[in-house]
Predict the structure.
Amino acid sequence: MSSPVPGTPSVPEGSAYDLSEPVRMRARWLRALWADRLGRSGLLLLGIVLMLVLVGPILFPFHPTSFGASSASILQGPSSRHWLGTDELGRDILRQTLVGGRISLLVGVSATLIAIVLGAGLGLASGYFAGWRDAVIMRVTDFFLVLPTLPLIVALAALFGQSLVITSLVIGLTSWPQTARIVRSQVLSLRERPLVQRVRSLGATDARIIGSHLLPNLLPLIFANLVLVLAGAVLAEASLSFLGLGDPVHVSWGTMLHFAFSSGAMGVGAWWYVLPPGLGIVALVMGFSLLGHSLERILSPRSREAS
Amino acid sequence: MTAGYLARKVGSLVVTLFAVLTFNFLLFHVLPGDPVRLLARSGHLDPQEAAQLRSLFGLDHSLPVQFLIYLKDVAHGNLGYSFAYRAPVTSVIGPALRNTILLLGVATVVTVAVGVLVGVVAGARAHSRIDSSTVTVSLALWSLPTFWTGMILLILGGVWLGVLPVSGIATAGYEFTTWGKVEDTAQHLVLPALTLVLVNVAEFVLITRSSLVEVMSEDYMVTARAKGLRRRVIVWRHGVRNALLPVTTATALYIGMVLGGAIEVETVFSWPGMGLLTYNSVLQRDYPVLEASFLIFTIGVIVTNFIADLLYHLLDPRVRQA
């Protein structure tokens, strides 16, 4: 549907514009993000964290079994040998933090993908098909929206076990309702646009209308939402793992803090054990939420004025 | 408030509560599979004993019948028997619920008060330097994991400064007078409550701020200015009063969020409430307690949402007429 169909009556201006928008907007977005103060801080913060987490473990690999030689080497403060001190088993905290970030990020991203696919899919179906399907989906969405998230995640993880896959699933399956609501309300307005009405009258199938006309127009919105869901998912993973429900083998930042807590590191004031993973979580979450808020501002002119 | 509106809201509340009970039943009784089979896995349980256990726990009935039994039990306040405490779940939950309400109550009042105040200060001067630094600080606070903030405060306030108690709700081994007991509890309350305030205040700052910014551009605010009213009167009497409406809704949603925070904060500071109970029941695989805690958390959220809906309806005449 790239060129106007010959013989159609004069097309309103708006519909032609809608077609090319997703493609043209990509470059404009990045520029707009960089121009926005919040957006730029978010991009920079994420850039630094990603760099440390992706490149760091290559330069400073962590060996989970590199225990301290004696009891004198456990929970030691920063030194020239261990820049960020040692944990309760005498292992290097800097190296552990660098590789732990990968796990936090991995779970955050997988959980977010599950939540976005589920949320966007249900939102699309709900908004597009309307009627009883809409009513059913929205009832379920509202129900999940009201359930207290962390208690639910904790209960699910306690029932189904501890592994990266289960953690991702549990967080993903509880983080979609907001997305579904946002996507649905956008679909409700998109489907009444002249362009969509026109292709429908030309006999386009539902799949084609959704795939080629609705989805491309929804992508910016979904992306902005995705970044905010990511922030929430990283926080949720940290909380869950802190409560001892993370994968004990693949140690994320949250799990590190769980071990710090349960080994009594705080009682001896071992700030070097508590600060690095925590600051990692904060930087990641803040980076994503800065980016998300900035994207929302760029996308919706109304909130740009208000804030 | 019309009777029709109230009836509709109560009807929807009842439907939601029923949905919650169904969800709870499916989550804890159907999904994990047969608990007796899990017990029998160790090999010490012969088929006859297993059958006895099944009939003891009512597991020999069909699922719909089990569901009805479950509903009847909950209606009678029978939430099962705790494995770890060897006591009825309700007697374990009672004191914990009281402690959590104390902690969350104090934290919520302070959070809303501070959040609204800071939000008004920032929103009344939109786009000023104070305003933009408030937004940045709020986003930073929002990014703090609750448990980690608690850990940091514990090290700072409890271990380094050594001025505040960091664990539990009361100093063990002391006989206090009534007043001394209040003071002791208050001291134990400071760090956990402060943690909750720090991580949650941003929500209220941002909502109050953007709501006030929006209200300030309304026609009636122009009128107020044109009447020559003083700025303070304009902001507080005309602006804030109207800007506070979204805050009531936010408070209800916040209750849902802060319950999660309670699990984290109570774990860090060993505050003997519902959160710590949840954490311990996870550690000890005490499923009846875990299930009951989840049920109470959920019902708490739903009931607060219900109350917030009614409040909103009472406070905003525009909603009332619509």
